Amino acid sequence: MTTDADFEQGSMAAANAILSYLGRIGEQAVAARVLAAWNDGSIVEPVPPTPTPIDIGGRPKFDQQQARASGYSGDQCQACSSIRMKRVGSCLTCDDCGSTTSCG
After folding, report:
1. Among 8, 19, 30, 47, which has the minimal tally of Cβ within 10 Å of its Cβ?
2. From its phi and psi, is residue 93 left (phi > 0), alpha (psi between -120 and 50) or beta?
3. Angle formed at CA 93 by CA 89 and CA 99, multiple of 5 degrees
């Protein structure tokens, strides 16, 4: 069974290996900054970023994964480049500009 102490020891070994590698490739200054940040508590466990829409021309632009998670197809609108396209039957309709794909 792996304990917290085992995990911490493995993490420290990995951190030491990274610092050693940085030194070997001539990045001693980077290694020193990383070590200083570790010692002053600036390095903490990473928190995954929350994707946020980027405002472009007054319209939010989502990435495809966000679009799909929000119920859109993730396809790009030919008229306005938005990816907020919803499937309506065999067509796609853009929520931003209202254009539709050619429905065949």
Report:
1. 47
2. beta
3. 135
In the chain, how many domains are there? Answer: 2
| Domain contains 49 | no
Domain that holds residue 77: 54-94
Predicted model pTM: 0.40
Q: Does 83 map to a domain? A: yes
SS3 of the chain: helix, strand, coil, percent, to 5: 40, 15, 50
- Which H helix or E strand runs over 72? none
**Rounded to whole angstroms, how far apart are CA atoms 54 and 62?**
7
pLDDT recorded at residue 6: 56
Gyration radius of the chain's alpha carbons:
24
- Write the CA distances from 102 to 22, 73, 78, 91, 96, integer angstroms: 55, 15, 11, 7, 17
Confidence of residue 8 (pLDDT cuts 50, 70, 90): low
